[in-house]
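Journal club side-thread
Mid-discussion, someone asked how the predicted structure for our own chain would compare to the paper's figures. Pasting it here so we can look after the session.
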Amino acid sequence: MAHVLIGSTVNALARTSPVQLLVVKKRVLETQGRAAVATDRSDSSKPALMVGLRWFGFRRLELFHAFDPPYRGLVDDKAAYDAQFEESAVEKCRAFVQGVAGADAVSMIEVIVRHGDPVTGLEVLTNEADTDLVIAGMHGRSGLMHALFGLRSLAHSK
């Protein structure tokens, strides 16, 4: 019952909070672990990157971004199409890092981009890449926020 009550409180906060919200589902006991900042590169996600830098520094922080190329179903060579969008997404993420943390940060923060669902990408990242904490930074009503908190039905309601 506590999980249901706490979960509904977190969902309500995620929907209505006027300030950034950090949800930690499992306490990180090892401070030498890796952290990832999940971003949609919006202005709202800049504070998440800054928090990650303050808490973890450059050597233990990575930036994660998921992308879904438009009109993918209409293209014959989907692999080449995905590769083109992946390259573009990496460059945009590097520009985002530079804009937030400066030019030196670009070479020190690992940028990870994945095609597809951001939640699935984060699951793979945390399970296979030895990532201990994900700091999700995105526009308050983005698809990633709703997917993470199970609020897909509320997407684009603002």
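Post-session note: Strands lie at 34-39, 61-67, 110-115, 131-137.
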